[in-house]
């Protein structure tokens, strides 16, 4: 894996006519993880979209070195295809290697993506992320909809990614059980 880096310099986030977050800076190197914390509506998803390059910061800038993959509530898999086919299709496009992370999807490979339950959809999204080969993972509420077992499996997959030199940014209002985790509360970055 090429050395990755993700850094934010004095970022401000505006949505509509409201500034949500200001003066947010960090610098993440291989193996590091950041938890963006804060209550509903504070701007966690908006910051993730800025880091992904999908939303322009009102101020400041982001520097990325390495490929980036995003997992959020929008499942990036074709709803009408069987899950196994949908994952294989994107794995060919994304060009990643087969992942060892187990999201318990083996028995669901013939089920159309659109029929998956909330937790199964979340696991499918994480499986696509894990198979992408991207060094930088952006995860927006990765534990939402997951039971205790699969919540722990998702966090184990993040730890395995870090152990291989990957970077993870996790936006979540829930506590996380990751090692050496840096936490930034967006409550400390209100305008
Ligand atoms: N396109 C938009 N235009 C204007 N306001 C928006 C837009 N998208 C989101 N917002 C507002 O920005 C604020 C932050 O939303 P965001 O989804 O980033 O918060 P969050 O911290 O991720 O919340 P949650 O924990 O509920 O997912 C909310 O008040 C939301 O209504």
UniProtKB/TrEMBL annotation:
GO terms for molecular function: ATP binding; ATP hydrolysis activity; transmembrane transporter activity. GO terms for biological process: cytochrome complex assembly. InterPro entries: AAA+_ATPase, ABC_transporter-like_ATP-bd, ABC_transptr_haem_export_CcmA, P-loop_NTPase. The keyword Acetylation does not apply. Residues 6-190 form the ABC transporter domain. Keywords: ATP-binding, Cytochrome c-type biogenesis, Membrane, Nucleotide-binding, Translocase, Transport. Pfam families: ABC_tran. The keyword Ubl conjugation does not apply. PROSITE patterns: ABC_TRANSPORTER_2. This is Heme ABC exporter ATP-binding protein CcmA. The gene is ccmA.
């Amino acid at each position: 894996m090429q050395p990755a880096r993700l850094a934010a310099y004095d970022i401000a986030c505006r949505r509509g006519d409201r500034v949500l977050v200001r003066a947010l800076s960090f610098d993440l190197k291989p193996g590091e993880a950041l938890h963006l914390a804060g209550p509903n509506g504070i701007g966690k998803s908006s910051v993730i979209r800025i880091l992904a390059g999908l939303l322009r910061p009102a101020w400041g800038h982001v520097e990325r070195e390495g490929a980036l993959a995003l997992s959020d509530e929008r499942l990036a898999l074709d709803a009408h295809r069987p899950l196994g086919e949908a994952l294989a299709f994107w794995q060919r496009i994304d060009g990643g290697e087969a992942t060892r992370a187990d999201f318990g999807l083996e028995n669901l490979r013939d089920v159309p993506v659109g029929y998956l339950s909330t937790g199964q959809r979340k696991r499918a999204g994480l499986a696509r992320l894990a198979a992408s080969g991207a060094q930088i993972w952006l995860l927006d509420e990765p534990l939402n909809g997951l039971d205790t077992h699969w919540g722990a499996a998702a966090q184990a997959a993040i730890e395995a990614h870090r152990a291989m030199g990957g970077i993870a940014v996790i936006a979540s209002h829930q506590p996380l059980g990751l090692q050496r985790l840096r936490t930034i509360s967006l409550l400390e970055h209100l305008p």
